[in-house]
Amino acid sequence: MNYRSYILKLFFRIAIIVGLIQGLLYTLEIANNTYAVIISIAIIYLLINTYSFVKRRFTAMDDFFEAVKYRDFSRWFPEDIGPKDIRFLYTGFNEINRTIKEINIQNQAQYVYLQKILEMVDIGIIAYNLETGDVLWSNDSFGEILDVPTFKNVRFVETRKPELFATVFEMYHRAPDSISIALKNESIKILISDTVFQVEEEAFKLIVIQNIDDTLNKNESESWKKLLSVMTHEIMNSIAPISSLADTLHQNLQVALQEPESTQLELEDLNSGIKTIKNRSEGLLQFAKTYRSLNKVTSLNLERIRVSELFNNIQLLMEPSIKAKNIAIDFKVATPKLELDIDTHLIEQVLINLLLNAVDACKEIENAKIIVEAAQNSNRDIVIRVFDNGSGIPKDILENVFVPFFTSKATGSGIGLSLCKQIMLLHKGKIIVKSIEGEGSVFSLVF
Predict the structure, then answer these.
(1) Out of 92-106, 134-148, 227-241, 433-447, which region has the weakest mean confidence (pLDDT)?
(2) DSSP state of 139
(3) 114: three-class secondary structure by DSSP
(4) Which residue, 278, 280, 414, 428, has most beta carbons within 10 Å?
(5) What pLDDT, on the 0 to 100 scale, is given for residue 299?
(6) Does the keyword Kinase apply (predicted)?
């Protein structure tokens, strides 16, 4: 509406000027000098007025564009001073400034929010200009991992640690790569990946690093704590009765030696006690041997085999003994052509362990049933699942079932599932367990 009003006013002025010029020509033709002078003065006034009318609008727009050029959105244009059309124009300029300031505030808030998140993570992140080396953004973790102070240009690292600069900044790691770097006379392992992106005409490189030594050490420490806890429990269970029985036998022998006439040594009791110590010692030795078996499986003898053939072998071996315990068992393969590249003997051992565990879980269950099935999931992974409707695994021990020597069975060694997990890791697969106490369990082998 303001634009139309401005055009009408400008058109009106031009029309009057054109009319006055025609009047001036007419007065000159009739030689009326008085009117000619008056009209000439009027024409000059209107020309100056029209020039000022157009100029003040363009001056206002030029001021606004100048402010935009220098990103000065804090400028305020007076909305209550000057001609109406200019005041209306100033109102529009102020509205644009308000909108841009609100957008800037929102962007700034998002930037601060993102920056705080990236500063809190223990992953190092840096983005810098590939040509100039100027750092666009970097978090504190990046400097802490590489043991360098805050810097504005990556050339700073080149002058201080040229080998580190070549490894981290000059080499490209399109896929996440594990590398070792030397820091403070020690070597640490980091996971590094990078990408290059374009912003207008400039190229930037984004590098992400993570100190995986700390993560591995933490996980290893937790594993050792669990392992030592279980081993301590098992060893103490064996040593305590051995020590107690040995002390009793020692006291009996001392009494018999000191008072041979009044005290008769029961050779049968002595033989029984020594036999018990021998049995418990052999049990402790067997425990140590089972620990060693965890380290035996280090390589694979891979061969391509159909899952149906693998299931047939297991079925011939296990089905008679399982059915003898009144437990139904069923083997299912989604497609007969399903094949795996595996070490057959090791995977058979895994399935035997899982089936024995399922049988143990179903021993007091009516209508007990075990199902072994194989299919391909949505990720094109081949998955073998062993289902049972047995007693299930309590939640408080579910996370420990793969810890070496951990067992909830009175006669178990706690080695079976640990060995299963190691075999699956060697196959670059994984074993997953889901269980509901009182309803059953499912162990999944994912290849």
Answers:
(1) 227-241
(2) -
(3) helix
(4) 414
(5) 67
(6) yes
Its CATH architecture, for the domain 121-212, is 2-Layer Sandwich (3.30)
pLDDT at 39 over 60: yes
* pLDDT (mean) for 426-433: 87
**Are the C-beta atoms of 204 and 125 separated by less than 8 Å?**
no
Same fold yes or no, 121-212 and 303-446: no
Q: How far is CA 407 from CA 114, 118, 315, 398, 400, in A?
A: 46, 42, 26, 11, 9
Interhelix angle 33-69/84-120, rounded to 10 degrees, is 10
Residue 113, number of CB atoms within 10 A of its CB:
10
Residue 405: its pLDDT value, please? 58
Place of tokens 């909305």: 79
C-alpha–C-alpha distance, residues 17 and 15, integer Å = 5
Q: How many other CB atoms are there within 10 angstroms of residue 97's CB atom?
A: 19
Q: 446: part of which helix (H) or strand (E)? A: strand 440-446
Strand segments (E) across 172-324: 177-183, 186-199, 202-211, 303-306
CA-to-CA separations, 173 to 130, 143, 164, 195, 205, in angstroms, rounded? 15, 19, 14, 8, 11
Tracing tokens 């036999």 back to the chain, one arrives at 275
Indicate left, alpha or beta for 405 from its phi (over 0: left) and psi (-120 to 50: alpha). left
**Residue extents of the structural domains in the chain:** 2-103, 121-212, 216-293, 303-446
Structure tokens at 439: 């309803």
Residue of 200, 193, 212 whose CA lies nearest to 125 = 193
- For residue 1, pLDDT over 50 is answered with no
Question: Which residue has better confidence, 5 or 351?
Answer: 351
CB 54 within 8 A of CB 10: yes
Category of 403 on φ-ψ map: left (φ > 0), alpha (ψ -120 to 50) or beta: beta
CATH architecture of 303-446: 2-Layer Sandwich (3.30)
pLDDT digits 0-9 by tens, 306-328 = 999 888 888 877 887 888 888 89
Beta strand residue intervals within 113-201, DSSP E: 124-129, 135-138, 177-183, 186-199
Report how far residue 365's alpha carbon sits from residue 391's, in angstroms, rounded to the nearest whole number. Answer: 7
